[in-house]
Amino acid sequence: MTETLEGPEAIVAAVARLGLGEPIAFPTETVYGLGADALDEDAVARIFALKGRPSTNPLIVHVSGAEMVDELVEEWTNEAQLLADAFWPGALTLVLNKSERVPDIVTAGGPTVAVRCPEHPLALGLIEAYGKPIVGPSANPSGRISPTTAEHVEMGFEGQDLLILDGGSCRAGIESTVVDLTSEEPRVLRPGVVTVAQIARVLDQDVRIDHQESGITKSPGVLGAHYQPTKPTRLVSSDEVAQSGPDIFVIAWSIEVLGDSQSGHILPADPHGFARGLYNAMHEGDLSTASQIWIEHPPKSDEIGSEDAQIWHAIMERLTRACQ
Ligand code: AMP
Ligand code: MG
User: What is the mean pLDDT of residues 187-191?
Assistant: First the structure.
């Protein structure tokens, strides 16, 4: 049975479970994560089993500040310090060379480790109270839609022994930006709400975007089908949105109201608002009586400013996988 708790009581119960190697779920500002002690191999193995996550897909280690990263990495580089100063706590994950302390299971056997300091007060409070780093893959069965509320986590793990910390709806709504600092030039492996331009400005150097290259296995979780509703899901044009009927759950941004015979969810037309509401709308579509989900294609990039274009690009990265 899942159990859901809020506030300080939730942190006390979660710390006790982490110490016993039992899984918990916790809110972050991006999406909800499944937590286990990052240095406890058996506890991490339970997270892989619970999610049904392939052992080839490494986990992000969550810390309460840069000090906690020291024992996890070979070297805390200048670039890491600059990015942490600018974006932590926040939605940016840094990939660095790992130390021997980090169990291989966390990094899928690789030589690097991904670290992030989340901004959500419940996540930070939890890691501080536990005093050790915590892995936090998204709290959904592998390949499914990421959770942005405690209810989404409950639905995904119904009947399982899991303590869920309820911290409300996630503010960012899509997963963190992942930047690899172990190659010659920094490379963004997964786009997110922290943009490539923002990272390049802070580092004062060019940043490559590698997530579009085919065959890249550097960040395996960003490849292939992912973020998927159980119902057939399609990306459609703004014109097609008008043609959706009652049997289709439509997720749109360019209209203000749905027609009488339409069902669905209208999201804000700005990319931050759209990202915040997207997974919730996809969960709604999955729970609805409609047989298909249609999602309106994001605006073409020449219609919007470049920072916005990069957030829409991060959204598109999720949508193309959701619609496979
Ligand atoms: P999730 O926790 O489900 O949001 O997925 C974590 C993402 O971080 C996946 O796309 C992983 O491939 C990526 N990731 C985790 N560790 C590493 C690493 N050491 N190198 C590159 N990517 C990583
Ligand atoms: Mg995930």
Answer: 95
